[in-house]
Amino acid sequence: MTQATSAADREDRVLERIDKFRRRRPRLLDDVVTLAHGAGGKSSAALVDAVFLEAFRNDELEQLGDAAALRIPSGERLAFSTDSYVVSPRRFPGGSIGHVAVHGTINDLAVSGARPQWLSAAFVIEEGFPIAELREIVADMSEAALKAGVQIVTGDTKVVGKGAADGVYICTAGLGQVPEARQLSRDLVRAGDKVLLSGTIGEHGMAVMLARGDLAIDADIASDTAPVHELVEILLAAAPSTRWMRDATRGGVGTVANELVKDAPFALILDEDRLPVQPQVLGACDMLGIDPLYVANEGKFIAVVPADESGAAVAALRAHPQGMQAAVVGEIVPNPHGIVALRTSFGGSRIVDMLVGDPLPRIC
Amino acid sequence: MTQATSAADREDRVLERIDKFRRRRPRLLDDVVTLAHGAGGKSSAALVDAVFLEAFRNDELEQLGDAAALRIPSGERLAFSTDSYVVSPRRFPGGSIGHVAVHGTINDLAVSGARPQWLSAAFVIEEGFPIAELREIVADMSEAALKAGVQIVTGDTKVVGKGAADGVYICTAGLGQVPEARQLSRDLVRAGDKVLLSGTIGEHGMAVMLARGDLAIDADIASDTAPVHELVEILLAAAPSTRWMRDATRGGVGTVANELVKDAPFALILDEDRLPVQPQVLGACDMLGIDPLYVANEGKFIAVVPADESGAAVAALRAHPQGMQAAVVGEIVPNPHGIVALRTSFGGSRIVDMLVGDPLPRIC
User: Does this complex have an ipTM over 0.90?
Assistant: First the structure.
């Protein structure tokens, strides 16, 4: 069997698979895309599953991490990640779409264990968009990249007609190197491990929501948008056996926690009393009937560390200005498999499911 | 002087530069973004210059190639590229937005001398978009990637409200390795070099334009959307001293040729008689008063090769099914600096300027 023949065979098999994919009825209840499909919760997962994973199937993609882990022939490991940013409004207390477009992609790389180095930036701009505002957004991106020590090295601009976009959408992709010894994987998580948050939760989502101005709530809440890669390095130095990390963006900590336990032989118990939430965020969430566990963050991550490294981990994070509110917020327990539960302040406990529906569209 | 101090100094200097950028009046006549800014011609260049280059200024970006050339510490060279795809209609004779989203980014890498390996794919989807059509687009992407031997390894999905996008926009970023010995640069181009096209021009733009159906023209024109990396490898094997390549997408061959000569100590003379154009494309262009030199391609590239390798280059390209119409179409001459000229069929000659305005919006 020559190499050419087996490559052709492989191509035939995959084309056949794509052909089947085209003819198959999608495993989705919906016929059209809804806002819930973009919320990062259950519907998003269903869409990704029934459309993207089924068609693109490959080992990298099935990890479904925040970034793909690539290995180039010289042996070097790279992380590669992308996100589009459609946040509305484009400017809110604490930041802008420009900041989020840089920080979001940096953070996806960082929680994959990579040291973010290079970004690309592609813009889809609506005809009539003010050049002055575009320059402000681009200045925010440049400043965010500089402060984080990453370079924006390539880009693209497309213009669509009036009404064919809401101002501007930004897509960034990021690239970073992963130090050789670094191993982060859901598969390393064990019962007994501790679950950490790098800081308070819910600020970004609430800041954006309040900035829309259609809620009669006036609260002093600023987005937490920030790069977390420095904090990740500090954590990994203090807790070198850290198992797994994820930044808690769309869908919040509740959704990310569910992604961790999905089909896993363990459960995650969160302690409501230990969740760091700013009082003004808690107040706004209460008034709106939204659980801060599902509100997006743009500068916080969740990490699972072995119990014997958790003290050092929290101490190290708290010594950094960005990590002063870091805390152990829960633990991994053997049962029931695949469940996230919250031990409430009243001593009860409830299941924390994946986000269903979309309380907060276009948050990032 | 410690390293920390000089890093802080550098950050201060750059923040000061960004601050100046924010306060400066943009060097642009327009106050708002227009469709012409997205057409790939003169206005696009002005926008990139006055907004993106000025803010993001770094060595990689200033090359303004189709991809950034990166070097990782092990010494390996990578090319990194991104593009958004907003083509309307999404399906046209010869392909779809899915094909173009994969081929376009592969081709940007290929003409930078890279071997395309990995792609990311980010989707901005309008609420209400049919899942069935999304699956078709994704199947096209999967098929295009498979046939080209690249992997789509990471992605993202955002959903915006009804009316906040025109169906779906796709942003892909790509990554490939550049073999060590390979050197391609505008700086290597010399008077006496020959200019090649890898095939006929203008099919993609005309196919998309006719597919819109609002012109009363019926012509059998299919997009040329295709990956060119195989053909690029063939060219580089036959003409190892190839100086420079570029795929002629938005703005067409005329615009890309102008990018080559801009501020350069040479001119480029094209021979109208030698430009490969399908008769039906020429006919449609004539009827619409559009110059095929400015019409987008999605599977063709222009290359500059030394004269003594140009015969072997064309012969090698023509031996491949994708390169059968490859031809030497012009040459580099010493004067006048920075000019692209066309020797017409009638023996005259005229200046080929950069595209001004936008005859064909949302072509890719």
Answer: yes
